[in-house]
Every structure is written in structure tokens, then in C-alpha cells.
């Protein structure tokens, strides 16, 4: 599926680095999501945006900072991460929060050294 | 929050066999999806099926919302069907995203 793209596909960073993950959807959707998949754990939701407005999610550490400049783009800014943040980060989009299914990008595999 | 349980956790079959994967959920849902995660991590949409029955080639799915379960059927398995199959549900207004089960790891042997 090419409806949702993510870059980079792989990222290795040190704990003091700052990096950003990018997601772009070409489906005309109005809601976008970040999920985290750690080894041997279920996928877990990190952030939700609807019509470029963030739906509050208070369980994510502040070293992860999302940004949604428009309905087609979603970023995840990373700074001072920990090795336990190493995971597959998946972006998804849906038509809106209330209807339709979610479509996922290929993910960014992040390794924090 | 809603709980999602998938069974079996692991399944090894010979090519050509049929299989049934089950997903139980603890509350009523607005959205239920089945995904196949390939070895590179991509989540591939199989079905959007909050209720009823759908078929797509060798795959079909049934959700009985009143009894809070869904089944994914794979017929005439091929080695390319190998991977992890996830069930995911949304029980609220969408703001909580999808809640995923732990998945069924399917291995199809030639």
C-alpha cells in the first residue's frame, strides 16, 4: 500500500541526538495517528490528530513531540531518547475519528544507542 | 479500557491447510479490523468488519458483535500467508485509536 508513506524507514540515533520522523498520507483522510510497537508487546497508541488538532494523550513521555502542520502530514520529533525507546514507529490515517478503518504506513524502525 | 484476546498465539500449518483465527473483545465496538504484518513490519489491511461477514479471495472474516468475537478464515494456505495476524478494535469515538491484540503468529510450511 502506498497510501501512507513514512521516512526514514530505518534510523539509528544516540541518546543526545534530535531527529524527526515524517508521515504523509495521500488518501484525503482527516485523522492521523502515531503508534509504537516494541518487541513482544502489542501495538500501543501514542498520539491522535483530527483535522490537525491534537486529541490529548497524556501517557507519552515529553521526549516525544508530535506535530501536524496539515491534514496530510504528521511528524514525530524525538530528543534525548532512551535505549528502551527503540521500536517500530507506525503512522496511520483514517477518514475521520468516527468512521472507516485505519491505514498504516510501513513504519520507521528506530534504534537508540 | 477494552481488552482484546487473540487465539491461538502460534500456529504452524502445512501449505494447503485451512485455518481459523479468533479474536475476543470485552466491550461493544465501533470498529474492528484484521491486519497481516509482514516480516518487514508493514501492517496490511485485510478487513474492516465491525459486524457481519466479508470475503476477499482465500480470506474471509466474520464478526458477531453481540457475542463480542470475530473470526478470520484462511483457506488453502500459502507460504506467503506466514506472518503475524492482528485484530484491533475501537470501542469509543475514535480518540483512543485502535486497541490491538497480541496477534497470532502463523507459519506455513511448504
Explain this structure:
With 113 residues, chain A is mainly beta. Chain A is 0% helix and 55% strand. Chain A contains no helices and 11 strands. Chain A has strands at residues 4-7, 10-13, 18-25, 31-37, 44-50, 53-55, 64-70, 73-79, 87-94, 103-104, 108-112. In chain A, the strands form 2 sheets. In chain A, strands 2, 4, 5, 6, 9, 10 and 11 form a 7-stranded mixed sheet that branches. The model of chain A has no long low-confidence stretch (mean pLDDT 92). With 110 residues, chain B is mainly beta. Chain B is 0% helix and 56% strand. Chain B is built from no helices and 11 strands. Chain B has strands at residues 4-7, 10-14, 19-25, 31-37, 43-48, 52-56, 59-64, 69-74, 83-90, 99-100, 104-109. In chain B, the strands form 2 sheets. In chain B, strands 2, 4, 5, 9, 10 and 11 form a 6-stranded mixed sheet that branches. Chain B is globular. Chain B starts with a strand and ends with a strand. The A-B interface holds A 1, 31, 33, 35, 37, 42-45, 48, 50, 55, 88, 90, 92, 94, 96-98, 100-104, 106-107, 109 and B 30-31, 33, 35, 40-45, 48, 86, 88, 93-103.
Labels describing this entry:
heterodimer; A: 113 residues; mainly beta; seven-stranded mixed β-sheet; B: 110 residues; six-stranded mixed β-sheet; five-stranded antiparallel β-sheet
Reconstruct the topology from this structure.
The complex is a heterodimer of chains A (113) and B (110).
Chain A: E1 4-7, E2 10-13, E3 18-25, E4 31-37, E5 44-50, E6 53-55, E7 64-70, E8 73-79, E9 87-94, E10 103-104, E11 108-112
Parallel strand pairs in A: 2-11
Antiparallel strand pairs in A: 1-3, 3-8, 4-5, 4-9, 5-6, 7-8, 9-10, 9-11
Chain B: E1 4-7, E2 10-14, E3 19-25, E4 31-37, E5 43-48, E6 52-56, E7 59-64, E8 69-74, E9 83-90, E10 99-100, E11 104-109
Parallel strand pairs in B: 2-11
Antiparallel strand pairs in B: 1-3, 3-8, 4-5, 4-9, 6-7, 7-8, 9-10, 9-11
Amino acid at each position: 500500500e502506498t497510501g501512507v508513506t513514512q521516512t526514514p524507514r530505518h534510523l539509528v540515533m544516540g541518546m543526545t541526538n534530535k531527529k524527526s520522523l515524517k508521515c504523509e498520507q495521500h488518501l484525503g483522510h482527516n485523522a492521523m495517528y502515531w503508534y509504537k510497537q516494541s518487541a513482544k508487546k502489542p501495538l500501543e497508541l501514542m498520539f491522535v490528530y483530527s483535522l490537525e488538532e491534537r486529541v490529548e494523550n497524556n501517557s507519552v513521555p515529553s521526549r516525544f513531540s508530535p506535530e501536524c502542520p496539515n491534514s496530510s502530514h504528521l511528524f514525530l520529533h524525538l530528543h534525548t531518547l532512551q535505549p528502551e525507546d527503540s521500536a517500530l514507529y507506525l503512522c496511520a490515517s483514517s477518514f475521520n475519528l468516527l468512521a472507516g478503518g485505519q491505514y498504516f504506513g510501513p513504519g520507521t524502525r528506530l534504534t537508540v544507542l | 479500557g477494552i481488552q482484546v484476546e487473540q487465539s491461538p498465539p502460534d500456529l504452524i500449518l502445512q501449505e494447503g491447510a485451512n485455518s481459523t483465527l479468533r479474536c475476543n473483545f470485552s466491550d461493544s465496538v465501533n470498529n474492528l479490523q484484521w491486519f497481516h504484518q509482514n516480516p518487514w513490519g508493514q501492517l496490511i489491511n485485510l478487513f474492516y468488519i465491525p459486524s457481519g461477514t466479508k470475503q476477499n479471495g482465500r480470506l474471509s472474516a466474520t464478526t458477531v458483535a453481540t457475542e463480542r468475537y470475530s473470526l478470520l478464515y484462511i483457506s488453502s494456505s500459502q507460504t506467503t500467508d506466514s506472518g503475524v495476524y492482528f485484530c484491533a478494535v475501537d470501542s469509543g469515538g475514535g480518540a483512543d485509536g485502535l486497541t490491538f491484540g497480541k496477534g497470532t503468529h502463523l507459519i506455513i510450511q511448504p
